[in-house]
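JOB MANIFEST
job_type = single_chain_structure
chain_count = 1
residues = 217
[input]
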Amino acid sequence: MRSHETNGRAIHAGMISPAATSKGAATRDIILERAYMIAASAGLEGLSIGPLADAVGMSKSGVFAHFGSREDLQLAVLDMAATRFGEHTLVPALRVQRGLPRLKAILGNWFEWLRRDRGGCVLLTAVSEYDDRPGPLRERVVAHHQRWQAELARAVQLAVEAGELRPDTDAAQFAFELNSIALAVQHDAALSDLDAAFARGHRMFGHLLEHYLSRNA
């Protein structure tokens, strides 16, 4: 009997029309977009199923049909934030010549992301929300951070291999320092003039390059 029930569910699932699947995906995207907007201003902990359901004109059960729990919704928003950040900063830079041009493109795109995302950075807020709270959300925050640091380190290593940075350059250290520049700019931009913060950030990057540039470059 159990196998027949399982087969029945499988057959029923196979009969779901593409239109229904597409509509469900579109509804999920609408919910996720509104949740992202809320998290940008109130943090992931500011997400509540009730107000979110009201905002998208759905019932709580309707939202839960797309996200099984509040934590699942928070994880999805966090992943969306990481994807958007990567699409804005890294993906365009990959079309630029590897080495220093690509590193400069990443930083420039990063600054433009800060300009665009002045209302609130979901990723940065999540760090302060979950830095001391073990669980799936903290693990996902750490995973996204480590992935980004690895991408930065790879871009640095390519500059080393191109002979533009010293052969003894510690790529992970350089990535850490590059990340520190962006964080300093984001902090200063929130409290003062945005363009002035960007200018200081570019000067910081110039000082960083002076230390690591190859004498043969």
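[summary]
The two ends are 73 Å apart (CA to CA).
Residues 14 and 75 are 28 Å apart (CA to CA).
exit_status = 0
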